[in-house]
C-alpha cells in the first residue's frame, strides 16, 4: 500500500538536506584554511632551516660572501665555537634529527634555583647560558656571551664586555641588566636559592656599565671569583621579574625555564613532573656562531635498568650507561656492539658516592654525632669489597671529596679499610654493648643500635650494596634497615634533614669547594650540609682556603682540611665510578677530551648524518 506524504514532510526533508550541505561546505572551508595554515608553518620552518644552514655554512667557511667580484673571508667564529665549527666541516655532516636519552628517575622540577639535582642541571644547561665556558681540551676559560674581560690587580673587581647580538629564545635582547637581575634575584631571601646564595654572598654588588658591560665587585678575595662570576646562569629579567611579587609561586613551580641557549621548552611554563619525559626544541633565534645540529633534545623517564637497556637495544634512545655487572656481557653482545661505540673512562671531574651520617635530627644530636661511631661505621664499610663485588673493579676508592689526582689531595692519607675489631673497640668506647645478648648492640639506656639507610630504590647496584652492608654491619651488632625511596621523596627527606643515614653522590670539579657540603654555616634549613656536621677548625680552614687566591698557598690549606675530614668521617666516602657507556653509531663526532666524552658538550659537538636520521621534525 502506497503511503502518502504531506507538504510539511517535504519541507522538513529539504531543510535537513540544506543543513547537511552547509555543514559539508563549512568543513571544507575549515580544512582549506587548516591546510593553508599548515603550508605557512611549513614555509616558515623551511625558511628557518635555510637561515640556520646558511649561518652554519658561513661560520664553517663553506660559503663566502662576494662583493664587487671580491671574495671576503667568512665571519670570525668565537673560540668557544671552534670545536663545533670543526664538526660542521665533516664530509657527512648534516643538521636535523633528535638526540634522545633517558633519565633513571623522575624529576621534581626544572625551575632554576629551586631544582637541586644533576638531572635538572643537565636540562638547564641546554637552555640557560653564562658569560664564559671551559675549553674541554685546555681546561682554560673562554668567552661565550662575554667577548672580553679584565680583573683588577686586587682581584676584587671583574669586568666583562658582552656580545651585543645575543637574544633570549623569545627574541628579547640579552643585556647587562639581565645579569644584574640574575644576581639580585638569587640574593632575594624569599627566593628558594640557599645553595646559590651561599656562594654568591662573597659578591658585594653586580652592576651594569652600559648596555653590554657588567661589573662584579667582591667583598673579599675568593679563589674562584672569576669562575663564579663568569658561570652565573643568566636569567631573563622580563620573564622572572614578576615572581619577585609572588616568590612562593616561583618556589613551588615545576617548569619555569627560559634562556638564551641553543634549545628551549616549547612553552617555558608548561613542563610538569608527570609528563614522562623532558623535551627541548631548537631555539630558532639562537645567536651562536655555529648552530646546534639536532632539532630536538629529549630525555625519556625510564626508571628500570632492564627497561632502559631494552629501549636502547630497540634504538629508542641513543646511549646506555651500563652497570658493571652487565658491561662485560654487553661488550660480547653482537647486536649491541654492531650498533654501538663503547667508552670506558674515569673523568677528571668524576663525582663520588658516600654514606652521610645525620648528626642532628629534630634539634637533638643523634648517635652519629659521636666521631667514634662514624669512624666505626667506616671501618665496617668494606669499600674494597664493594668495588670488587658490585662495581667489578670499575671504580676507585674515594678517600675524601677531593679526587686522588687533585692537588687538593694529600697523598700520604690512607683509606679506612675493613676492620671489624677496630670498629667494635670504637663502638664499645662510645658506650655500645650487646647488653641483652640478642646480637644487637645497645647504648647505656638499653636502646638498640639500629637505623634506616635511605637510598634510591631504582638503582639496582645501590640496592645490592645496601644488602651487603646490612650483613657487614650485623657482624658488629649494628642493625641496618634498608629504606628505599623514590627520587623526589629522597630529596624531601634530604632537604628536611629527616633521615638516619643516606647514600648518595656529589658531582665534582677541577678544584672542589667543600664549603657547600661541610661548612657549619650550611647546616641550615635547605642548606647542603644536610648531615648537620660542624667543626670550627674545618670551618676556619675552608674560609682561609677560599680567601687564598694564590694556588701554591691554597693547596696546603685544602690538604689540612682533607686530613680533618678523614679523621672526622662526616661521610663514609665510598668510591668514584668509571663511565661505562654505549652510544649508538648514528651519533657522530664522539671524542674524548680532558673533561671526558664530548657527548652532551655545549656548544653541541655531535650530529647524525642525513642517511642515518630517524626523526623528521
Explain briefly what this protein structure is.
The chain has 617 residues and is α+β, with helices and mostly antiparallel strands. The protein is globular.
Account of the protein in words:
With 617 residues, this protein is an alpha+beta fold. The chain has three domains: 84-97 and 276-345 and 581-617, Periplasmic binding protein-like II (D-Maltodextrin-Binding Protein, domain 2); 107-275, Dipeptide-binding Protein, Domain 1 (Dipeptide-binding Protein, domain 1), CATH 3.90.76.10; 352-577, Roll (Dipeptide-binding Protein, domain 3). The protein is built from 19 helices and 26 strands. The chain has a five-stranded mixed β-sheet with strand order 20-19-21-15-22. It has a four-stranded mixed β-sheet with strand order 3-12-11-10, with helices on one face. The longest helix is centred in the first third of the chain and has 54 residues, at 7-60. It is globular. This is Peptide-binding protein. Keywords: Membrane, Signal, Transmembrane, Transmembrane helix, Transport. GO terms for molecular function: peptide transmembrane transporter activity.
Spell out the CATH superfamily of the largest domain. Dipeptide-binding Protein, Domain 3
Report the count of strand segments. 26
The CATH class of the largest domain is identified as: Alpha Beta
Q: Can you count the helices? A: 19
Biggest beta sheet summary: 5 strands, mixed
Strand content: 15-25%
Percent in helix: 25-40%
Poorly predicted parts: 1-15, 30-47, 49-74
Radius of gyration, in angstroms, nearest whole number = 29 Å
Q: pLDDT average, as an integer? A: 90
What's the shape?
A: globular
Side by side, the strands of the main sheet go 20-19-21-15-22
Protein name: Peptide-binding protein
GO molecular function, one term: peptide transmembrane transporter activity
Transmembrane segments: 7-28
GO biological process, one term: peptide transport
Amino acid at each position: 500500500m502506497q503511503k502518502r506524504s504531506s507538504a510539511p514532510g517535504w519541507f522538513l526533508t529539504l531543510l535537513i538536506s540544506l543543513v547537511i550541505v552547509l555543514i559539508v561546505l563549512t568543513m571544507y572551508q575549515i580544512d582549506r584554511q587548516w591546510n593553508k595554515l599548515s603550508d605557512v608553518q611549513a614555509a616558515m620552518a623551511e625558511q628557518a632551516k635555510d637561515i640556520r644552514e646558511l649561518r652554519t655554512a658561513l661560520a664553517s667557511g663553506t660559503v663566502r660572501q662576494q662583493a664587487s667580484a671580491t671574495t671576503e673571508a667568512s665571519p670570525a667564529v668565537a673560540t668557544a665555537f671552534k670545536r663545533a665549527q670543526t664538526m660542521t666541516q665533516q664530509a657527512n655532516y648534516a643538521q636535523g634529527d633528535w638526540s634522545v636519552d633517558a633519565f633513571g628517575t623522575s624529576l621534581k622540577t626544572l625551575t632554576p634555583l629551586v631544582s637541586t639535582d644533576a638531572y635538572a642541571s643537565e636540562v638547564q644547561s641546554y637552555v640557560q647560558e653564562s658569560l664564559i665556558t671551559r675549553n674541554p681540551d685546555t681546561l682554560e676559560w673562554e668567552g661565550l656571551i662575554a667577548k672580553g674581560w679584565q680583573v683588577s690587580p686586587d682581584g676584587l673587581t671583574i669586568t666583562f664586555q658582552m656580545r651585543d647580538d645575543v637574544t633570549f629564545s623569545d627574541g628579547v635582547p640579552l643585556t647587562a641588566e639581565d645579569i644584574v637581575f640574575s644576581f639580585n634575584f638569587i640574593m632575594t631571601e624569599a627566593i628558594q636559592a640557599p645553595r646559590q646564595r651561599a656562594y654568591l654572598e662573597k659578591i658585594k654588588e653586580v652592576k651594569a656599565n652600559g648596555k653590554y658591560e657588567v661589573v662584579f665587585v667582591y667583598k673579599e678575595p675568593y679563589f674562584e671569583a672569576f669562575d663564579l662570576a663568569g658561570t652565573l646562569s643568566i636569567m631573563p629579567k622580563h620573564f622572572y621579574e614578576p615572581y619577585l611579587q609572588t616568590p612562593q609561586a616561583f618556589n613551588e613551580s615545576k617548569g619555569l625555564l627560559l634562556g638564551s641557549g641553543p634549545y628551549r621548552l616549547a612553552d617555558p611554563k608548561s613542563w610538569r613532573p608527570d609528563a614522562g619525559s623532558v623535551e627541548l626544541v631548537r631555539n630558532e633565534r639562537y645567536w651562536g656562531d655555529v648552530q646546534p645540529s639536532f632539532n630536538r633534545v629529549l630525555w625519556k623517564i625510564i626508571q628500570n635498568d632492564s627497561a632502559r637497556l631494552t629501549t636502547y637495544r630497540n634504538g629508542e634512545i641513543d646511549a646506555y650507561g651500563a652497570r658493571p655487572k652487565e658491561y662485560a656481557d654487553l661488550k660480547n653482545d653482537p647486536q649491541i656492539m654492531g650498533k654501538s661505540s663503547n667508552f670506558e673512562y674515569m673523568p677528571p671531574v668524576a663525582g663520588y658516592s658516600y654514606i652521610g651520617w645525620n648528626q642532628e635530627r629534630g634539634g637533638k644530636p643523634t648517635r652519629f654525632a659521636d666521631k667514634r661511631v662514624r669512624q666505626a661505621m667506616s671501618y665496617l664499610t668494606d669499600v674494597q669489597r664493594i668495588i670488587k663485588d658490585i662495581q667489578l673493579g670499575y671504580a676507585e676508592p674515594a678517600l675524601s671529596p677531593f679526587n686522588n689526582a687533585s692537588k687538593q689531595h694529600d697523598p700520604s692519607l690512607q683509606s679506612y679499610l675493613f676492620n671489624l675489631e677496630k670498629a667494635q673497640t670504637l663502638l664499645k668506647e662510645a658506650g655500645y654493648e650487646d647488653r641483652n645478648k640478642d646480637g644487637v648492640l645497645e647504648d647505656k639506656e638499653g636502646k638498640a643500635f639500629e637505623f634506616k639507610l635511605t637510598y634510591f630504590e631504582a638503582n639496582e647496584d645501590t640496592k645490592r650494596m645496601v644488602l651487603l652492608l646490612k650483613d657487614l654491619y650485623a657482624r658488629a651488632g649494628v642493625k641496618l634497615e634498608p629504606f628505599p625511596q623514590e627520587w623526589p621523596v629522597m630529596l624531601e627527606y634530604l632537604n628536611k634533614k629527616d633521615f638516619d643515614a643516606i647514600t648518595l653522590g656529589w658531582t665534582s670539579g677541577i678544584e672542589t669547594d667543600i664549603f657547600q657540603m661541610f661548612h657549619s654555616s650550611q647546616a641550615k634549613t635547605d642548606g647542603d650540609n644536610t648531615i648537620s656536621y660542624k667543626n670550627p677548625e674545618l670551618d676556619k680552614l675552608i674560609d682561609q682556603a677560599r680567601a687564598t687566591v694564590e694556588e701554591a698557598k691554597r693547596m696546603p690549606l685544602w690538604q689540612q682540611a682533607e686530613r680533618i675530614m678523614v679523621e672526622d668521617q662526616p661521610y663514609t666516602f665510598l668510591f668514584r665510578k668509571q663511565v661505562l657507556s654505549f652510544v649508538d653509531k648514528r651519533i657522530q663526532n664522539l671524542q674524548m677530551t680532558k673533561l671526558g666524552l664530548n657527548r652532551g658538550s655545549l656548544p653541541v659537538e655531535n650530529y647524525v648524518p642525513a642517511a642515518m636520521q630517524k626523526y623528521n621534525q
